[in-house]
Design a protein that fits this description.
189 residues, mainly alpha, 3 domains, elongated
Length: 189
Amino acid sequence: MDIDQIVQEKIDKDEQFQASLAELGDDEREQLLSQKRKEVLSNEFATLKALADEKTKAEELANNYKARAEKAEGKIKEQSEGLSAKDALLLAKANVNLEDVDEVVEYAQFKKIPIAEALKSSILKGMLAEREEQRKTAQATATGRQQQQAGTESEASILAKASGGQVPDDEAGIARLTEARINQKLKKG
């Protein structure tokens, strides 16, 4: 179907326009039909241009997304290729915690030195020792709390009961409620 047929179909379907032609003379009718053809043709081209623009934008977006994905994929490949078997063995021998491996690798990349040399760095050793100490403290604290709370109600349930009006009547219960409220306020900062 060509463009002239499409334009003619649109003109034929416009009942209001067709009715307005019935009252006109031949010259006026031809002039009005010519104007209507130009108008419909202009609208069709505008619609096609808008569709083409949308398609172009969609293609540009797709290309941008593809480029970003390829770039991200390249970075992942670089990072995974950056750690050789030898480096992994060195990290394991140095007892570097799994949580700290990325830090060691980033430090070595930042300083542009091999992993072996980075592991000898006093700055990195200090950081790793501090992180290990923090983990030990956190683990000991968590273990102490678990032992302390074994067989007793959780702070959350004590607070929930108290807010519902169930206040403990024994001294130990009141002490637990007080401690729970203090801990709650400390957590909120």
